# Entry
Amino acid sequence: MANILYITCNLKSREQSRSLTIGSEFLARYSERHPEDRIDFLDLYRDPIQRIDADVLNGWEKLRVGGSFDSLSDDELRKISKIWNLADQFVAADKYVFVTPMWNLGFPAELKMYIDTVCVVGKTFTYTESGAVGLLRGKGKKCLHIHSCGGFHCGSDDDHSVPYLKAVMNFMGIEDFRFVVVEGADALPHRAGEFMNKALEESREAATLF
# Structure
């Protein structure tokens, strides 16, 4: 049995969102093939994600120089605990599915805020004399990115979404990364159905391999 962490970052309903529609198709097919797997859902707009702020940075610095948890203020302890809980949830998962829209060549800020809570020293990576090393490497973890953008950006120099997420996953040691992208539906609305059907088929294929 595998533990899936299904992460969405979208204000729209499924009926209004291309990426959420494709994600739902993937989930349906995946669940048919793996009914025993556990799927945990995380909505980055509706679930409380602790951002890194002054309290977090001050608390981390106290711990870094040898301070105890008792030396942290109530706010520092509370906020750091929230971040570590999210990082622990991430580490415990076997597979990750990110479902996102493109906003201005990248992601909504909520996704970056979440990534900052799971890229944690001692949990998902560590520093060595030769550089940072991902602690999730060699554990068979997989990541699927389902992404939508209205224009045509995938693979271009101005795409700061899929390549960035792939780099972050690799940084933590998750090397099995694949993606399904629907793009161009706003640029060529008369072909939107064609683009969606292609992405839906790719999501069904991904469900058989993931």
